[in-house]
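note to self: dont lose this again. the chain is below, predicted strucutre after it. 315 aa total, dont forget to put it in the shared folder this time
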Amino acid sequence: LVSNRGDLRRRLTDASNNGRTDLWRVAVHGFDQEPLRGQGAGTFQITWDRRKPRAIYTVNAHSLYLETMDELGIVGLLLLLAAIVAALVGLALRARGSLRSLYGALFATALVWALHAGVDWDWQMPVTTLFVFAIAGLALGPREGAGPGWVPAHGTRLMLGLMLLITLISPVLMIGSQTRLSSAENALYASNCAKAGPDALSSIGWLDVRPEPYEVLGFCDLERRLPRMAVSAMGKAVHYDPTWETYYALALAQAAAGINPRASADRALAMSPHEPLAIRAARLLQTSSSTAWVSRAAILRAAALSSNDLSIRPS
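---
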């Protein structure tokens, strides 16, 4: 959390909280503001950028329960707890039967996962979480001797199967988009816009509602000295995800095009008041000289691509 550099295994022997308490404090504050409905699904990063005590990039609260409180409020938290507790209780009840050793081990595994999810973010990775829902199905399914339970009709089974197939569409599109986006980001940071541009366009072809491919296109447009096209690309990034990063990128493009960038720069700073990139942009772009905007946009672009604080970053 504190740094992306060095051996990540060292945090396992670190007696400190590795900066988590700041994340948890911000999440609790967000919950206090909207305890019933929350701030909105997937918005913790925005809450963090606005209230973080120091310039650190993160998208997760490093706690499943506190992040759910912040984003979905008390209703979302209760639904989450109901699902987890139901699985744990089901496994505990099964542990009293003939297969108690197996279900006891599964219960212990699920319990450790539930506790660990409260202090870290890796619950979001399928490899660490998918099994929990699989064994939850075992725990809550029909017991031995209880009969087959509800058996759906043929038409119902077909409908359920089609619905499950439809749910695969979004992950496939995301994987296709992310693969090409990662390639585009690496090419951008290597100053290879000949590759970054087509890869970004391919990423958009897979999924056109993500801001990062448009940012890549915008930065490449700036490198090719096409600032008006960069303004268009950055504007789309803001449309799909209005964060400090997209407003910062829009401010650079506007400055390079000789368009007044102060409103966008000020918006970026208001959304992340401790972010060094946003602070510097707001300061350098407060002039009324279009000539100064153009020259300073080049400086800020170079600073952005040498930083690891933007959502577009080499993988």
